[in-house]
Design brief:
α6 packs across α12, α7 packs across α9 and α10 crosses α11. The longest helix has 20 residues. The protein contains 15 helices and 5 strands. It has about 350 residues and is mainly alpha-helical.
Length: about 350
Amino acid sequence: MIKGPRDPRKTVRSQSIRFGNGGVGRYIVTNKKGFVVYIDHTVLNLLPRHFNDSDPAFDDWSASRTLWRKFREERIRLVTNGKETEMDIILWFNRQGCCITDTLRAIEAINEFEAWNKVEKSYIQQYKQILAHFEELELLRIPTGGFEGHPTADEITRVLMLRAGEPDRENASEDDRSLLQKCLSGLGDWYTEDRWRDLKRTDYQLNWQILETVLARQGIAPVFQGSEGDRNRYLFGLLNRAVGLTKKSCGKLPVPDSHIDFVISMVLQKYCHNQLSSGINHLLNCIEQNINFYVTVNHRLIQDFDDQRAALKKYLKIANLDLNVMSPKRFVTETLSDDQRATGV
């Protein structure tokens, strides 16, 4: 049984992880009091961007900046699960085509991606700001092995009647798998022995040429930028992972078809998690830690949680589920007092 709600200004102890420039991140173990708000990677991804007031995302973006300003002024406390949010960020980078394999060298990996000269510098700067914002957060201390007796993410998914298995852009289709197979089957025509033996570097230029050629043969425009390039960037991220894994597991070219199928299955299993599944894990963290506010831009999760709050409360056998899953706009508008609201960071 889950314990009842606690004061939203309660203490949350936290730890840190190593991320960013390759140095040691902050180790935070604090008993500070403060207004505790849990956020996920969707807010971190929103912060460095810029929107016109006519854009549907403008209100949430503006509210996120207000949220961050209050955090830096120590008027509120922003917390997250370090391990899970770190993985969410890595998966998000992968969907942009940027391959971060080692969190200790994340900035170095972004610099390698920038050197490819296919991505605008403004986007590269946003990527680095996401990491910088992440390192500012307080990271929750999660017991080894999780919380005994607490519900699992699968249980929460069933109670909320969420359709976690629904196909979306983050879940590979058969067409995506087929394109990846065509790319990997032709690696021997592109990679020299020296390039194939280089296990440290992601050859963005060569991998893009491979994908570009396969896309053109299928009558697909090899667009990389903008919303038109969403799928291609997503495929490119998967291809980079697949090539890297194949290099490490197959010393000689060409790669056997059976091994290609194995590699693709492994990559899709690890890097095709959908945003809803991630949101369920964060929701569970808030329930386990008795955190009253979870701010996210995952609007589908917000709606499903609101619709099924009564069912979840009944399942958890608690009199009151004092958790609010809210967009940045709603949190700033409804929860922060008038004197706390401000614009900008």
